[in-house]
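Explain this one:

_____
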Amino acid sequence: MNLDTQIENIRADFPQLSLKINNHPLVYLDNAATTLKPKTVIDAITHYYSFEVANVHRGIHTLSEVGTRHFEETRIAVQNLINAKEAHEVIYTKGTTDSVNLIAQCFGKRFLKAGDEILLSLMEHHSNIVPWQMIAEETGAKIVVTPIHANGEINLDEYKKLLNAKTKIVSVAHVSNTLGTVNPIKEMAKLAHAAGAKFSVDAAQSIAHMKVDVQDIDCDFLFFSAHKMYGPDGIGFLYGKEELLNAMPPFQGGGAMISEVTFEKTTYNILPNKFEAGTPPIAGVIAFKKAIEYILSIGLDEIAKREHEILEYATTELKKIEGIRLIGEARNKAGVLSFVLEGAHPHDLGTLLDKQGVAIRTGHHCTQPLLKHYQCSAAARASFAFYNTKEEVDTFIAAVKKAREFLL
């Protein structure tokens, strides 16, 4: 699909883009936090609750069988999207954070012991830091942090030096939610495996913006959330290599994840059910297949190309404003643009932009160690999706200039 010629039709698919905020047309530039939802996803949720409500994997009546089939079709769609070898290597979770906690707890209890090392990077989201800290405290393992260069790129030389026989798992973001840096995860995975470590990828900020192939990367785990890729919230996905998932204990106990229960002993179900206790968010899972289909109908290569053009244009224009300091200028970036306006608090800037209909994110972006490294406690962030336009970037830039005049 040619996005340039179809952009108005695409934007019409997203009802929220018709909103006016404070009497201004909405310019939504907070896509790294969550993306807007196309009508096909919204309609799928409405259809389920109107005509197909039934629990899955628990009944032989028609509605249960229909729901189960649609529920599992989404798993296959995710398998194909990320090129997993088997559909049962795709586990439904509540989101990226839930996925990391599952890996940290279940991998940690099976494979970590006192003195082992968990290697993270300085640019990690809190959700890829805190769960590892918790399991490290429980097992006696140690957190080790890979530094970054001034431009926001991973310091690969230091990364290589930090890998050693004590390193049991490396967990890094594919794309930084604050810097936009696209990390060389395939090379990093190869190095980790050479050292005998497992490799885990936070794909929350990459999965909707570029092709992600778990077999090509050769990662042991990969996880992401539906709401960051035009799908419903409350749903996440964890990919894990079959042999690892089979070796790990369950995350939670309850219905669906069991094979046989007695008061004396419980045996656990096979994959993927082993890690999917209780009734799942059925409507959202079913609707998410529509989000995947929508993304693929446009094409991930086309999406990546357009978002890169928008990012380059926004970066060039923002740099022209006096007092702007960019946070992260990696050579390979996704559509995330973080910055500070010297002399102004990001929250004040964000409030004044909202008055002009422009939605950006301000704060520490759940990356406090990273922003401390850049000697600031908060930053403003504009993040782009394929439905954004250069005209919206112009509105954003004009709004920043107007806010600067007011604040300074």
